[in-house]
Design brief:
Length: 432
């Protein structure tokens, strides 16, 4: 009898606490549903793309416009003017980096040469014949031992640099002489964007920092939620009109007023559990066409979000952390498993999937990952962790050629002045 009475009381209590409209459980459920009801997931099942789809589809690329971009604050390079002869015509040498597992750096390309750095942080300017014009190092003996890695942005006759040991400075592009030098509290972990008289960069503590170009003084900073581990990939930022939009190590996308540093909107894309797992979490660069922001990660999520509001347009289940490319109404990306995926930009529908690793044996392809790609005219140039570059006809999805560049790590490819460049450890290779 006592057990029956206790059971009746328990049922009454649960009914009162859990199913009333004002209960906390009910509210949490409503909040989750409200947050998700406007999100369009193109695929409902959580699975990776591991097979080809619609591979016979021929893309009409006749209306694609070719450009010569090498700097774009929205990371939207599209199809660039390159015919793709793949004839080696230049070799810019530098001292090899040590203990390196990726080459995610970008040279400064000039009409008469390029600028890069070496293992001790020396900045090197080359002419278009691969000859060194000047080489300058602005680090102390102890700083050189830390082997700083550099990121550049050009400001007319000056070069602005941030590095992996928390230093940032400006040098004259013609002589390499120092204009000014300052230190941050934490090392930097993103590329640099410049807008008018300001530069923007993110440090390892998930803080976006805004500096004045002329003297390096800080204009403002914005700290976002931190993680307990150091990220294994670089953060990304873009500049669109009056906003700086950036990602951090836990998957938050934040839009900030460019003058004040005040948050306009913020979109968390991961659950709170990711805070403890950020070393393995990798997100692509943000890319925008001015209306939408496109990015993906290695958690099987490919996002399109609205620039003005930060609301999600659609999410597709694609496993990739390399930078996608927007061309017209199409988005191109390559999954971490080596599949070229063509997506309809406005709706997020996948219209074709092509296996670019089909020539590798199964045992070998498991150890190969894509590094990055560019589009030259109607060809795609994909570099991989095995030191090879795959050239693909985008219209048909056919593999035209596989070029061996190195037996070790290589960078993503770059196109400038109708030439293609790839960094390998110790040199930058130029192709006609």
């Amino acid at each position: 009898m006592n057990r029956i009475i206790i059971l009746i009381i328990a049922l009454i209590f649960l009914n009162q606490c859990s199913f009333k409209e004002n209960s906390r459980i009910w509210k949490d459920k409503e909040n989750k549903l409200e947050a998700q009801k406007n999100i369009k997931k193109v695929f409902l099942e959580d699975k990776k793309i591991t097979s080809e789809f619609n591979q016979e589809l021929k893309l009409d690329l006749s209306i694609i416009k070719f450009n010569n971009k090498i700097i774009d604050n929205e990371n939207n390079y599209g199809s660039q003017n390159y015919k793709g002869l793949i004839d080696k015509i230049g070799n810019y040498k530098f001292s090899k980096f040590e203990d390196i597992n990726q080459l995610n750096f970008k040279p400064i390309f000039l009409d008469d040469g390029l600028i890069f750095f070496d293992k001790k942080g020396s900045i090197i300017r080359y002419n278009d014949k691969s000859k060194v014009l000047w080489k300058k190092n602005h680090y102390s003996k102890s700083e050189k031992k830390l082997k700083p890695k550099l990121d550049f942005v050009q400001d007319d006759e000056n070069l602005l640099i941030t590095d992996s040991i928390a230093k940032y400075y400006s040098v004259n592009i013609n002589s390499g002489e120092l204009n000014w030098s300052k230190n941050n509290i934490y090392p930097f972990n993103s590329d640099i964007k410049k807008y008018k008289n300001k530069i923007f960069v993110i440090d390892y503590k998930n803080t976006l920092r805004c500096y004045n170009v002329s003297d390096g003084n800080e204009c403002w900073n914005l700290k976002t939620e931190d993680s307990f581990t150091i990220s294994n990939s670089k953060f990304s930022l873009i500049v669109i009109s009056d906003k700086v939009i950036f990602s951090n190590s836990i998957g938050d996308i934040t839009a900030v007023d460019i003058e004040t540093g005040v948050i306009i909107w913020q979109l968390p894309t991961q659950s709170s559990s990711i805070i403890n797992e950020t070393y393995n979490f990798k997100i692509s660069k943000l890319v925008s066409d001015g209306n939408s922001i496109i990015f993906s990660n290695n958690k099987n999520e490919f996002h399109s979000i609205d620039v003005k509001t930060g609301t999600i347009n659609w999410i597709n289940e694609i496993n990739s952390n390399i930078t996608p490319i927007i061309t017209g109404n199409l988005i191109f990306t390559v999954s971490n498993e080596g599949y070229l995926i063509v997506i309809e930009k406005n709706k997020g529908n996948i219209i074709r999937v092509t296996d670019l690793f089909k020539n590798y044996k199964l045992k070998k392809r498991k150890n190969i990952k894509p590094v990055g790609f560019v589009i030259g005219n109607t060809n795609l140039y994909l570099t991989n962790t095995d030191g090879k570059m795959i050239i693909v006809d985008l219209s048909l999805g056919d593999i035209k050629k596989i070029e061996k560049i190195s037996g070790d790590f290589i960078s993503r490819p770059f196109i400038f002045n109708q030439n293609l460049f790839v960094i390998r450890n110790g040199s930058i290779i130029q192709y006609n």
